[in-house]
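for the writeup, i need someone to sanity check this before i put it in the appendix. the sequnce is what the collaborator sent (i think, or maybe the updated version? ugh). structure was predicted straight from it, no edits. if anything looks off just tell me and ill rerun, i have time this weekend
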Amino acid sequence: MFSTRFAVPVLALLLLAAVPTIIHSYVGSAVTDGRSAAGLPMQLANEVGEKTKRRANWGEDRLSSSDWIERRFAGPPAVKLFVGRSFDAKKLYHHPELAVDYGHNYSPVTTIRLPQRSDVPVYVLRGQGPSAQHGALYALHYDGGYVEDPIRFQLRTSFRSLFSRRQPMTLFFVSTDLPAGGSLETSSAASILIAALAAFEGQAQRQ
């Protein structure tokens, strides 16, 4: 027989557990911020890109992203830019190179600040072995700012996301083969990354 003295706390727990379901199922489940990867211009940093030959559903299959682009800038040196948005943040911040730039051997990731955008933490992947001339830079955007530590980000947002509408993370990823003695920090890849960030940020201002 159920004791009525437990009715109030049990009811409170049930209502608390129902809040995420109500928010994600009946209230608008996702935040619309007026930004889009597909809306980025073809020309960035005075270079005109062209679409790569990824199949149309590749982003959805690999990164749970329905809003993504991948473009190649001829250079020289050639630069590949990927920008994708996903509500499954871990698929973007956890070793994105394994999906976006598969086939290269990288040293452990480090973080830098480019002089042109010192407010943005930029992740650096430097090639090693057969990929010694290859390198990549990427940045992660979420909720109007940039993510510096994905683990802290996950801890900070995991509980909050239960009681708020979902927000997408955006991955900006550029890769290139550097000439001998070249530096990623001063490369055309860095310029294209910075231009992509600025174009993306500017989209919301035009809404």
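The longest helix spans residues 7-25. The first strand starts at residue 43 and ends at 44.
thx in advance!!
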